[in-house]
Amino acid sequence: MRQYSGIGVLDKAMTVLHAVAEQPCVLSDLCERTGLPRATAHRLAVGLETHQLLARDDAGIWTLGPGLAKLAANLPDPLAEAASSVLPRLRETTDESVQVYRRDGDRRVCVASAEPLTGLRDTVPVGAVLPMTRGSGAKVLAAWADVHTQRALLAEAGYTERQLAEIRKRGWAQSVAEREPGVASISAPIRDSSGVVIAAISVSGPVDRIGRRPGVRWAADLLAAAEAIHKRL
């Protein structure tokens, strides 16, 4: 439920911002959604555009602006903070690369990683964007995604609906040479404080070293690390 501060101009500006966040729109639609007079809605939208909180294309359609992302970038990430205290221990246990991925639409983003100090490794830096169509991390995130997202992903994915059901039952996923030739991985879900799956934790490395059945080696350790992050959240 929306909250109001009692500061008229601020509350109206936030009403405009929320209306555009709900769906990009032209000025006439913005007036209809907010109930504001056309002049008022336009003045507030232009002001928000000046501060890059809204943006407008050549067709006059208002969208959220880049300033919001810049502000959000300064927010602490509880998931990354929780993972930072768990991943080093998992890396030491496995002596392999470890990562945490969060789904962003039809892709996944690495939000935390830890690499072994020596030897051949599967380096995935923080901020790396990977597909949601292949790899054990992608399969875990897809397995616990909503039905609409699953259907959209399955149209392009290398996994099936049946495989996702098996992953939910087993509690983890593995892959061999799916995302990258010669690389194997195993992933498990990370849940937030309410039990909702919000990310995937992974161990990855060369197939020649990690084997073609990484789940046999690392499932227990991976699930323990996922639980440790869950508790910190």
Automatic annotation (TrEMBL):
Signal peptide: none annotated. InterPro entries: GAF-like_dom_sf, HTH_MetabolicPath_Reg, Tscrpt_reg_IclR_C, Tscrpt_reg_IclR_N, WH-like_DNA-bd_sf, WH_DNA-bd_sf. Residues 7-66 form the HTH iclR-type domain. It comes from the Bacteria. It holds the Pfam family IclR_C. Keywords: DNA-binding, Transcription, Transcription regulation. Residues 67-233 form the IclR-ED domain. PANTHER family: HELIX-TURN-HELIX TRANSCRIPTIONAL REGULATOR, ICLR FAMILY, TRANSCRIPTIONAL REGULATORY PROTEIN. This is IclR family transcriptional regulator. The lineage of its organism: Bacteria, Bacillati, Actinomycetota, Actinomycetes, Mycobacteriales.
